[in-house]
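Saturday, quiet lab. Running sequence design on the C-alpha cells for the scaffold JK sent over.
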C-alpha cells in the first residue's frame, strides 16, 4: 500500500480548466472520497493519479516518490471505472487470474491469490461462470477483485456504483468498506452521492468546478459546512438556507428574515451587522413548537413525505419561503396545517451571502 499526495494540480481541456490548483494528501491505508457534482473534476484527478492524464501543472507523489514522469503501468495503481469492463469470454476465475498471469506468477500462487480474493468478496460461487451470467452487483465484485488480486499500492474507484439499484448500492457500499478495513488497501473513491461517501470514507474532499470547497471527516463536513455550496450539496434533504440580516436589539443580536425575527441566544464574536447573510439549519434541527401561546416561527404544511419511521415535511413560511423539516412518523401532519417551529440554535450555521463562505461566530 502507499500514501498519495498531489500538489497544485491543474488541468484544462480546450481552454476549459477542469482542475484548478487542487492539492491534498491521502494516508497509507486510508479510504478517501472525492465528492462533487458531475463535471466537478473528480474523474480528471483520478486519471492524473493513475497516469492516464498528464497535469498541465502540479506534482503527484505515491509513497513519497514523485511519479509525474512514471508510465501508468509502472505506478502500480489500479482503477475501476463506472462501467466494469470484464473479459466476456473468460470465467470469473480467469478474469481474476489475468493480471497475475501477466506477472508470470506460478499456477499455485495464482490459484491461492484468486481464491483468497474470491472468498473476501463472496464470489467463490461465480468462479466458473462468465460475465453474461452475473448480476450488476456480481459484475462489480469481480471487477473489484481483479483490481485487488495483485494488491496495487493504490485503488482508484470512479463512481463504480452509480447505475445500481438503491438496495444493491447500499449493500455494495458496506462491502467496500468492509473490504478496505480487512485489506488495509489505500482507496480513493469518486462519487456525487453523499450517502455513499459518508458510509465509507475516513475523510471526504468536496469539489465544485475544479476547486476544493472543504476537506474533513464526514461529521465535520455535515455539521460545519465551510460554504453554502457544501451545506446545500451535502445531506438528504440538504440544509435549509434562508436569506437574512443581523441587527442589534436590546443589547443582543437578532437575525431578521423576511418571514421572522430570531434573537440569538448565544454570544456572537463576529461583527455580523451590515452584511447580507444566509442562515443555515438542517431539517432535523427544526423543531415543532408544542403548546398554546408558545413563541416560534409561523409555518404552513405544504407536502408530507413518509419515509420509514420518519417523514420529510415541506413548510411554507409567511413570506413564501419553503423549508424542510424531519419529524417522527407518529406526528400527524397534513397539507394546510398551521403550526409553529423553532430552530436548535446550537446547530445554526451562518454564511456570507456574497462569498457564500461560512462565518465563525
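Result came back. Writing it out in full:
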Amino acid at each position: 500500500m502507499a500514501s498519495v499526495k498531489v500538489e497544485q494540480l491543474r488541468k484544462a481541456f480546450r481552454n476549459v480548466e477542469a482542475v484548478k490548483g487542487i492539492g491534498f494528501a491521502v494516508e497509507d491505508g486510508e479510504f478517501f472520497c472525492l465528492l462533487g457534482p458531475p463535471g466537478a473534476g473528480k474523474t480528471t484527478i483520478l486519471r492524473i493519479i493513475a497516469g492516464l492524464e498528464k497535469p498541465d501543472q502540479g506534482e503527484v507523489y505515491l509513497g513519497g516518490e514523485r511519479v509525474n514522469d512514471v508510465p501508468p503501468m509502472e505506478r502500480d495503481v489500479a482503477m475501476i471505472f463506472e462501467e466494469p469492463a470484464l473479459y466476456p469470454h473468460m470465467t470469473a476465475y480467469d478474469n481474476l487470474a489475468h493480471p497475475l498471469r501477466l506477472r508470470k506468477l506460478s499456477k499455485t500462487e495464482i490459484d491461492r491469490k484468486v481464491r483468497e480474493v474470491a472468498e473476501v468478496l463472496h464470489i467463490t460461487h461465480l468462479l466458473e461462470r462468465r460475465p453474461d451470467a452475473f448480476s450488476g452487483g456480481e459484475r462489480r465484485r469481480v471487477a473489484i477483485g481483479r483490481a485487488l488480486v495483485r494488491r496495487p499500492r493504490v485503488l482508484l474507484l470512479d463512481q463504480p456504483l452509480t447505475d445500481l439499484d438503491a438496495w444493491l448500492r447500499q449493500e455494495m457500499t458496506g462491502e467496500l468498506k468492509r473490504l478496505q478495513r480487512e485489506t488495509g488497501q489505500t482507496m480513493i473513491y469518486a462519487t456525487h452521492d453523499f450517502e455513499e461517501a459518508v458510509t465509507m470514507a475516513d475523510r471526504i474532499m468536496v469539489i465544485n468546478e475544479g476547486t476544493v470547497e472543504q476537506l474533513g471527516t464526514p461529521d465535520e463536513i455535515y455539521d460545519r459546512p465551510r460554504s453554502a455550496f457544501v451545506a446545500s450539496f451535502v445531506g438528504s434533504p440538504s440544509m435549509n438556507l434562508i436569506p437574512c440580516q443581523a441587527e442589534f436589539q436590546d443589547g443582543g443580536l437578532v437575525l431578521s428574515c423576511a418571514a421572522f425575527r430570531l434573537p440569538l441566544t448565544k454570544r456572537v464574536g463576529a461583527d455580523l451587522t451590515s452584511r447580507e447573510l444566509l442562515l443555515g439549519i438542517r431539517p432535523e434541527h427544526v423543531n415543532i413548537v408544542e403548546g398554546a401561546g408558545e413563541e416560534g416561527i409561523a409555518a404552513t404544511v405544504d407536502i408530507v413525505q413518509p419515509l420509514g419511521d420518519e417523514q420529510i415535511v415541506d413548510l411554507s413560511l409567511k413570506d413564501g419561503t419553503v423549508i424542510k423539516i424531519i419529524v417522527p412518523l407518529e406526528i400527524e401532519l397534513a397539507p394546510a396545517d398551521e403550526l409553529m417551529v423553532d430552530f436548535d440554535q446550537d446547530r445554526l450555521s451562518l454564511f456570507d451571502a456574497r462569498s457564500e463562505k461560512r462565518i465563525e461566530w
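Notes for JK: The longest helix spans residues 166-183. Residues 240-352 form a domain with the OB fold (Dihydrolipoamide Acetyltransferase, E2P) fold (CATH 2.40.50.140). Ask whether to fix the surface positions before the next round.
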